Amino acid sequence: MRKKLSNLDPARLSGRVALVRADFNVPTENGRITDDGRIRASLPTLRMLSDAGARTVVMSHMGRPKGRPEPKYTLAPVAERLEELLGRPVEFVPEPVGPSVEAAVRDLSDGGVLLLENTRYLPGDTGNDPELAGAWASLADLFVYDAFGTAHRAHASTSGLAEAVIERGGEAVVGMLLDRELRFLNDALRDPERPFIGILGGAKMSGKIPVISALLRKVDRLLIGGAMANTFFRALGLDTGASLVEEDRVDMARELIREAENQLVLPLDCIVADEVAADARTRVVDREAVGPDDRIMDIGPRTRAHYAALVGEARTIVWNGPMGVFEMPPFAEGTMSIAHAVAEACDDGALGIVGGGDSGAAAERAGVADRISHISTGGGASLDLLAGEVLPGVASLTPASVSQEEI
Questions:
Q1: How many Å apart are CA 223 and CA 312, to the nearest integer?
Q2: What pTM was estimated for this model as a whole?
């Protein structure tokens, strides 16, 4: 149980400096933001604080600049877009810490909003440097954690900052976006309405073995797609041609198949090509008929129909990972079919939760994002939560009183 921003009396926020760790790791192209979904997702928390008269200082990372400034990862475009979306001024400080930040915070008016430069411009962020966390903590006595996409990492701007604020006698609370993320995922896992269908895709099963094991204990069926299905095919003794296979995970896949019995559902047919290219020539083959030079690139039409039928019967659905190389048109149909199937199930009253990253992008590309119950902003964090792991960014926050609702 962790204290939430929504539990605080707004009157207590007026004039108070609130540090908000948001997730503005948005895609950009030539300095322009191509998808502002994560910025929009942060607005409820930022509006609540600003409307209450808090002096709001927002922090985030972008990309992987390896502890030094890189212009392509600047948050300056985010500040401009955030100002447009909030409908109020957003001051940008081109440094993540230091005297200029301290001066800007001192000068910030009640209700004002300030965005700091990329936290990962500093090597101490990903290294969870306590001195860096302490420098940020000295700016405020309220920390609002609202970056679900980073909740599975112990960084200075996440768990380190929360701990430093608490050590100084302040509070570290759950923001409104993080609260929503945790509610959807925890509710789905705690007491799902059945049938409960899990869908996992992506290139590798190695990082998802704990998730597969955890979901097999909870779901009625677990549908597998993407290149990870190839490793399961190999475990069944099938030829996978020139496809990506994790050879060191074949025995593990074989054991999962044995333990799962009929819960684990694998593709029946595949889209294959001789190269990974947007203009590749494709064929549909049964999973038993993959040739020596074939590369498995997507699930086939029989599999799409079978998976859509299972999803259509579900009352709870959790989906993380594409069914193929969906970025390329010849191999996108499998992932698009899953997106439409989940949306149609949600239209019929099912709870559909889509993991962040590629799955969320696929739902957007399919034009069904607004029909899905919840699209997470954090792919890695959602996988860790599904696997039953503790999220350091959440565990470090201020414990709630027994009267507050559990999250």
A1: 13
A2: 0.88
Residue 208 confidence (pLDDT) = 83
38 is catalytic: yes
Round to whole Å and give the CA distance between 351 and 196: 9
What would the pLDDT profile of 368-396 be if each residue is shown by its tens digit? 999 999 999 887 788 888 877 889 999 99
Tell whether the model's pLDDT for residue 192 goes beyond 60: yes
Catalytic entry in 112, 334, 380, 393: 380
Instruction: Please confirm, yes or no, whether 127 is among the known catalytic residues.
Output: no
**Marked catalytic residue, from 204, 283, 302, 371:** 204
At 403, the pLDDT band (50, 70, 90 cuts) reads: very low
Reading phi first (left if > 0) and then psi (alpha if -120 to 50, else beta), residue 241 is in: left
Provide DSSP, 95-113: SSSSHHHHHHHHHPPTT-E
Distance CA 40, CA 183 (A): 19
pLDDT at 262: 87
From 99, 95, 160, select the one nearest 124 (Cα to Cα).
160
Position 172 pLDDT exceeds 90: yes
Q: Are 131 and 97 in contact (CB under 8 A)?
A: no
**CB distance 172 to 145 below 8 Å:** yes
Residue 357 falls in the annotated catalytic set: yes
| Distance, CA of 53 to CA of 50 (rounded, Å) | 5
- Residue 267 reports pLDDT greater than 50: yes
Whether 6 contacts 52, CB under 8 Å? no
